[in-house]
Structures are given as C-alpha cells and as structure tokens.
Amino acid sequence: MSRVSGQVLILAVFKRILSASIIINIGLLLGRLLGFVREILIADGYGASWQADVTVTVLTLPDILINILVGGALTAALVPSFTADKAAARALAYQASIVIFLFFLVVAGVLAWQAPVLVDLLAPGYSGQTRQVAEIGVAAVVLLLPIFVLTGVTTALLQARERFAIPSLGTFFFNGVLIVGLWMAIQQETFNVMVIVLSVFAAGTLRYVSQLVAVRPGIAPVRSMQPWLISGDLVRRYWQAMLSGGILFVYPVAARAYASLVGEGGVAMFSYAMRLIELPLLLCVSFLGVVLLPRMSEAYGQNRKSFIRLIAYGLQAVFLLGTVAIATLFVGRQGYAQAVYGRGLQPEAMQEVVQLVGIGLLCVLFQGAVTFMTAAFNAARQTQLPLAMNLLGGVGLFLALQAGGGRSLLEIMMALTFTYGLLALVYSVVLGRRFPGSGPWRDGQSLKFMAGVLLINVLVAAAHWWLLTSIAGGWLSVMLTIVAGVLALVLSALCHRDVRARIFKVSF
C-alpha cells in the first residue's frame, strides 16, 4: 500500500475513531459519572462494612454474568455475521434472541439453586450474617439473567450498523435507576438486600427497552424464523468467544474474590480502586475495538492489506491513548481518588486506594491492547486463538494469586497487572505471526512514533507533577490533570507522520 493510500486510510480511520469516540465517550462518561455517584453513595452510606461488601457483590453480579456468558461473545460472533449479510441481520438477531432467552432461562434457574456456590466463588471470605445476606441477594438477582441477556443481541446489531449512541448510554440508564434504588435502601433502618435486587431488575429492563426501541424490530415472528440462520460456525464462534471473553473478564473478579481474604472491607476497597482504573480504560482505550470491529470484519473479507493496516493503526491508537492515560493519571492519582471518594473514605483507606490505583493503571494499556487484539481475531473469525491465550493467562493469574494467599490488596493488584502485561505480550507475538505487518512497531516510522509518544508524556508528566506540588489540591488539581492529559494527547498524536502529513500537508 502506497504512502498516499496509507494517509487516506489513516485519515478515514482517524475521522471514524474521532466521531465514534465522541459519541461513545459521552455516553460512557455519563454512565461512569453516575457509576462514581453510585460508588460514592455506597461509601457514604455503608463505608467499608459488610453491608458495603454485600451491596457491591449483588450490584456487580449481573454485569459479571452478562460479560462472561453473553455480551462480548455475542458481539464477537454476531457482528461479523451481521456485516457479511446485512439484509438478513434483523432475522438473525430475532432468532438469536429467542434461542439465548430460552437457554439462559434454564441457566438462571440453575444459578439460583446454586447461589451458595456462587458466593463461594465471588467472595470466599464471607461468613456469618454477611454470607447469609449475600446468598439471598445472589439467588434473587441471578433470576433476572434472562431479561438482561437479550441486551447482548441488540447491542451487537446496533454496533454492526455503526450506531453507538444508545448502547453507550446503557450504563447511564442502568446506573441512574440503581442510584435511586440505593438511596431508598440506605434510608431504611435495617439493611434490606431485596430493595437492591429490585433496583437491578428495573435498571436492566430500562437498558434493554432503550436499545429495542433503537433497533425498531419488525413484527413478523413466523416469517423471521425462516430460513434458519444460526449455523454451526456461528455457534462455534459464540462458544469460543464466550469462553475467551469470560476467562478474561474473570481476571479482576478472581482478584476481588481474593481481596475478601484480606479482611472486612477488602472487597469494597479493591472495587473502589478498580472503578478508578476502569474509567480511563473504557473512555480512552476499550472503545477502539468496538468502533473498528465492523470495519475490520468487512476488510478481512474484501481487502486483506487494509485489514492489516487497520490493526496496525488501531494498536498505535491503543498505545497512544493508553500511555497518555497512565502518565497523566499516575501523576494526578491523589486528586483523582480524592475527588471521587474523599467524602466517604478515611485517610488511611484513601491512601491504600491511591496505592492500588498507582499499580493498576498499567492495566489500562495492557488490557486495552488485549481487548483490541481480541477484536482483530474475532473480525478474522479466529476466535480459538484468544481462547487459548486467555486460558493460559488465567492459569498464570491463579498461580500468582495462590502464591500470594491474599496477604495484601497491593500484592493482589500487582498479580493482576503482571498477568495483563504478560498476556498483552503473548497476544502481540501471535498476532504478528498470524498477520505479518499488523504490529504497532511494523516499521521504523512506527518505532519513531512510539518513542515520540513516550518522550512527550514523560515531559508533560514532569511539568504536571511540578505544578501539582505548587497548588493546594482539590478540584484545581483535577482540572490541572485534565489539561495535562489533553495537552499530552494532542502532542502525542502529532508524533505520527501520517497525521502530520494530513494536517500540515508535509511529511517530516
């Protein structure tokens, strides 16, 4: 591919990433801001107590199950099929909805029956009243799975159409309803887990209905069942993607389970830190796989060179955004954590959260790279490769956590971060061998770009740190961190030769 065509492609990719990222990030930001309000409400109402541990467990379980069993797998399997035959996409979505609803109706019943086993897996350190209340909440909330599972199909269909607004607002709708339910639960004299469960039900229903309206389904239930479109290949890719995504999603869940061994409040503390890490991961990096998956799926079948170039540019974008997020938030992590949890946590607890975030921020780059490379393999319908690598990483994480024995939250976070880093390295090696030229370091110019990004972020971070030492802190430090991040982002983007060539009409 010539330099001119490469510049045209990167401009198209850049415009698509920019427009989609604005849409997605506005929705995600609104949702995550309400998520922080939710965490603040829990911290203010329950602190680091057993009630906080149970609340976190019940609230996060539906998303855990959806992400393991449905969400990522359906997107990975259905988006390539939707883009390959756009005329049949609506009928395929209808058939998939019927099948997975009936299947997960049975799954929900089994999970409710085995609620004590789920509690053992999610929080083996629970005992006494904490365990008893957690079992009641878990048994009730898993019965809502058949309703939530349908959201995965509508999300995949909307993403295949490159309509990202409504799916990105799903978390906003979900957290908005949960906040109301949490407020009602906290106002009660005694802790009632069923109020929280009913809030989860209302939140999940609103999220699905919002996407169903956006899809505009046709009313033709009999005609939509013929011809039967769910092939053996689609089922195989779904199960492989489900196991692959499920294993990857379980990494932080397993780490949080070990956090329950640290003592009372361990689960809540680890969850608070992970929330601060997940926000930049979602806003800065993870959306790239969502945005480019439809384009990569089409390019794989039509133009293999464009497919490889899309992967390379996508990984370079992951490196740029991940590096900016890590450098900026590492320097400003104290003000970042204080702005979110300053009212609800004691100083000692706050410092521990800040330490955890300082280590875990590396996950933004590592996990973001793994997520994007998984999307690339899914676009090529090679779902077996992420499955094998994620399974290998899961074994490594288990051994690392088992060796630590849950002695401290810091050791647990270090084990999780190291696992993501090693997994990202394995992914990049396999991707480079499967699709030569697809790595972010594909040529000398790419290496210069990466070196420039590192240098820019070191310089901006140094100036950022110096300015933070000169101010009182509070919201002023948060604003300074935002300004430093924007500056680092703009200067880092200009390190790419093709970006400079399209903006300044020169190549240097």
UniProtKB/TrEMBL annotation:
GO molecular function terms listed in the Swiss-Prot or TrEMBL record: lipid-linked peptidoglycan transporter activity
Species assigned in the record: Marinobacter confluentis
Family that this chain belongs to: Belongs to the MurJ/MviN family.
Keywords, in A-Z order: Cell membrane, Cell shape, Membrane, Peptidoglycan synthesis, Transmembrane, Transmembrane helix
One biological process term in Gene Ontology: peptidoglycan biosynthetic process
Name the record gives this protein: Virulence factor MviN
Any one of the GO CC terms: plasma membrane
TM regions (residue ranges): 64-84, 91-113, 133-157, 164-185, 191-209, 238-259, 279-298, 310-333, 353-375, 387-406, 412-435, 447-468, 474-495
Job of this protein: Involved in peptidoglycan biosynthesis. Transports lipid-linked peptidoglycan precursors from the inner to the outer leaflet of the cytoplasmic membrane.
Domain of life: Bacteria
Membrane topology: Multi-pass membrane protein
Intracellular or extracellular location(s): Cell membrane
Pfam (any one): MurJ
